[in-house]
Amino acid sequence: MLQPTRTKFRKAHKGRIHGKASRCNFMNYGAFGLKAISPDRVISKQIEAARVALTRHMKRQGRVWTRMFPNIPVSKKPVEVRMGKGKGSPEFWACRVKPGRILFEIDGVSEQIAKEALYKASAKLPIKTKFIKRFT
Question: 3-state SS of the chain: helix, strand, coil percent to 5?
Fold first, then answer.
């Protein structure tokens, strides 16, 4: 699973996801892509599950680009622990996704296979997504 090798701070604030994506909002690599429509946090396990579903459906043909990286540590307190006594330890890594961000790009397969593969990948993600094509 994806996680940064080192970070400046061990824990992060929860924060809110406001506005539309200003980066990664245009297709750069592939011919087909998966675009986020709703905002949410996508954790590293979900990114990996979507990537596996994508590559399995494509039968390892073509090329896949993942345009998101989980760089936010999400902390969690243990089960059945009373309130207080500080913040919990980091449990997993997440990526804050704004609407309009390109999540995956693929190339080297037909449009029908790309559409089905990206649909299967979107089922593994907690956000609403949309299939897009590059116009050249």
Answer: 20, 30, 55
Give residue 45's Cα distance to chain centre. Answer: 9
Residue 47, in any domain of the structure: yes
Question: What is the total count of domains within the chain?
Answer: 1
pLDDT (tens digit per residue) in 37-73: 999 999 999 999 999 999 999 998 999 999 999 999 9
Compute the C-alpha angle 62/36/48, nearest 5°: 55
The domain in which residue 116 lies consists of 32-76+88-130
For 74, phi then psi, to 5°, come to: -110, 120
Count the neighbouring beta carbons within 10 Å of the beta carbon of residue 36.
26
Q: Which of 13, 2, 24, 10 is nearest to 97 (CA)?
A: 24
- Within a domain: residue 123? yes
Which pair of tokens denotes residue 36? Answer: 């986020």
| 3-state SS assignment for residue 117 | helix
The model's pTM is 0.92
In a domain, 10, yes or no: no
